[in-house]
Design a protein that fits this description.
alpha+beta; Barwin-like endoglucanases; 2 domains; 15 strands; globular
């Protein structure tokens, strides 16, 4: 009996050390694994590695539906998290290989790949990031950064941060077009006109032999498109002024005030809700919110209560 003691202790220590090494801040492992089974996993337009363009169909994770779409006006503030070691080397949702030290991120609905600017509202650091995966499947998170992105934005040690995520619309459109052109899924191959060196032949003089001289065509002009220019900014940290922000839980948004009032009354048992009037593309909207909360943790708890009351579309936002 005594001979087994050291062996059991060594095994327990090994398991503990492995768990400590593999953990990463604020990563919902079940969420990322769950997406592999429930998200639309239809083959991308091309079988090449990396750079495949994909939007995807609506999918469900842990009872919540997500609706991917091309939204080149996307601009939202909320809470960011990051993911790293447990997914390093695995395939992303658009068929790329995940590299935790690349400046990338996961988003629930934006097209892949696209380019977004992520601004840490707590320290003013801003960074252009390439979206190439789906996630995070944690209530109250709007983006899951790679480990390197989190490091550059000063989020790695803390685990979460208040951020603003803005898609680079023109640049993302250009990137989508470039990838679609490079991977025409259903178009038949069309033979291109021959492109080779041009032969200039001089007329021979009397009694001389015919000679030919090859002249190389001029190189194509160097043109930097919007997507390429933006991709060159990836990994470059800039600084913006920092302003005070608040964290809210938004239970719903309505075009009619009476609908917002009904939801506000229904949430009386969860917390004090208020109605905020705003505008989306020129249309008046009424948002039902609870808060502000003192911390991300308080917002998470409040969000869980709102969802538990029957409002699964509730979310955490920052203003």
């Amino acid at each position: 009996m005594m001979r087994n003691g050291p062996r059991v202790s060594r095994i327990a220590a090994l398991i503990l050390s492995t768990a400590l090494v593999s953990g990463c801040a604020e990563t919902n492992l079940f969420g990322h694994w769950a997406k592999k089974a429930t998200e639309d996993r239809s083959p991308p337009a091309s079988t090449t590695t990396g750079g495949m363009y994909k939007v995807g169909k609506p999918y469900q994770v842990q009872g919540v539906w997500y609706y991917p779409r091309e939204d080149f006006d996307y601009d939202e503030s909320g809470i960011a998290s990051w993911y790293g070691p447990d997914f390093h080397g695995k395939l992303t949702a658009n068929g790329e290989q995940y590299d935790q030290m690349a400046v990338t991120a996961a988003h629930k609905t934006l097209p892949m790949p696209c380019l977004v600017r992520v601004t840490n509202l707590e320290n003013g650091r801003a960074l252009v990031v390439r979206i190439n995966d789906r996630g995070p499947y944690v209530n109250g998170r709007i983006i899951d950064l790679s480990r390197r992105s989190a490091q550059l934005l000063g989020i790695e040690g803390k685990g979460t941060a208040r951020v603003r995520v803005q898609i680079l619309g023109d640049e993302s459109r250009a990137l989508a077009g470039k990838l679609k052109d490079a991977n025409p899924a259903s178009q038949p191959a069309v033979a291109a006109a021959p492109r080779d060196t041009v032969t200039a032949e001089a007329l021979p003089g009397p009694g001389s032999q015919s000679t030919a001289q090859k002249v190389a065509p001029p190189p194509p002009p160097q043109r930097v498109d919007a997507a390429t220019a933006a991709e060159r900014e990836i990994g470059q940290v800039s600084e913006v002024p920092v302003h005070a922000t608040n964290i809210f839980v938004q239970a719903g948004s309505f075009s009619r005030y009476d609908n917002a009032q009904r939801l506000s009354n229904a949430l009386s048992g969860v917390g004090k809700a208020s109605i905020h009037q705003g505008s989306v593309k020129g249309q008046t909207v009424y948002r039902v919110r609870l808060g502000p909360t003192a911390s991300v943790e308080d917002a998470d708890r409040l969000l869980d209560r709102v969802i538990g009351a029957g409002y699964p579309d509730a979310k955490v936002l920052v203003e």
